[in-house]
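Human:
Class, as today's exercise, you are to examine the entry below, and be ready to discuss the fold:
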Amino acid sequence: MAVRAIRGAVQVDANERDQVLEATAELVSEVMERNGLTTDDVISVLFTATPDLTCEFPALAAREVGFSDVPLMCATEIAVPHALPRVVRLMAHVETERPRSEVQHVYLRGAQALRLDIAQ
């Protein structure tokens, strides 16, 4: 069984708690579904949020969709002047039989513009 890192991001419409939780839950669910994972496959998840998202920790959304015993961490993304606003990113470390070339990275809503080369 290999350890793989899966990237993903979602853009949120506004710095509102419900929107951050909904968008993050959607992102986490899509990463899990597209990669055929269960929470038992997840080693850890690092979430970042752009500095304009301060209303809630994105990791709370993962807890609410069943990541009760997965180590989660949140951090603030670097405040680059030309960066896409209101973005939650994740990097999940998982155990999977999939080769790196078959890992599905997930970029939703406006965040698709961040990685057109790997967005699915």
In short: Helices lie at 17-34, 59-64. The two ends are 24 Å apart (CA to CA). The beta strands are 2-11, 42-49, 72-76, 87-96, 106-108.
